[in-house]
Design brief:
The structure is a single chain. By secondary structure, the protein is of the alpha+beta class. It has 2 helices and 9 strands; from the N terminus they run ββββαβββαββ. Strands 1, 2, 3, 4, 5, 6, 7, 8 and 9 form a 9-stranded mixed β-sheet that branches. β5 and β6 form a beta hairpin. The longest helix has 16 residues. The radius of gyration is 16 Å and the shape is globular.
């Protein structure tokens, strides 16, 4: 199996979150656009620095520069298998004051009210992280959570969450 690493972010401004509205043709042949977190695949030189990859992706997709984002912190590390790949996604959160954004070939960045996110057409990954972030994650902003994607007894995807803790042992 191959390993693919990704870095993404949920950027907030008040009660809004920045999401990428992607064209329909980029996701499972759907006829309608869908939404994703800002981010993408890590470059080989970024494999030991997912934060650098995340900032690069944010600037490429939105025009926002590193110095325009406050309180950027790692919140989630999600693992899943996709065909012959193991995918590891590092998810950050941060705050942005600027509203003006640029478009990229990835799609149109859009500010969404936080309560409008659940019904949007998104990936299972985004749904799982968003649900956890809005419950556990909002209460514990200093914690990092790991998630492993699996399926339940009916074959529906689910994520098993754990807090990442240093056990202080050798």
């Amino acid at each position: 199996m191959k390993l693919r690493q990704l870095a993404s972010a949920f950027l907030f401004r008040g009660d809004q979150v920045l999401l990428m509205n992607k064209p329909a043709s980029k996701w499972q042949g759907r006829s309608e656009p869908f939404y994703a977190a800002i981010g993408g695949h890590m470059e080989p030189e970024e494999l030991n620095d997912p934060l650098a990859a995340c900032f690069r992706e944010i600037e490429e997709e939105t025009g926002l520069r590193r110095e325009e984002i406050r309180q950027m912190r790692l919140r989630y590390i999600l693992m899943r298998q996709k065909e012959a790949e193991i995918r590891v996604q590092y998810v950050y959160t941060g705050e942005v004051m600027r509203t003006e954004l640029t478009t990229s070939e990835e799609g149109q960045p859009k500010w969404q009210n936080m309560n409008e996110v659940p019904p949007l057409l998104t990936s299972v990954f985004l749904q799982a992280v968003w649900q956890h972030l809005m419950t556990e994650g909002c209460q514990h902003k200093d914690r990092v959570y790991t998630g492993t994607m699996a399926v339940d007894h009916t074959g529906r995807p689910l994520v098993h969450w754990n807090e990442l803790v240093d056990p202080l042992v050798f």
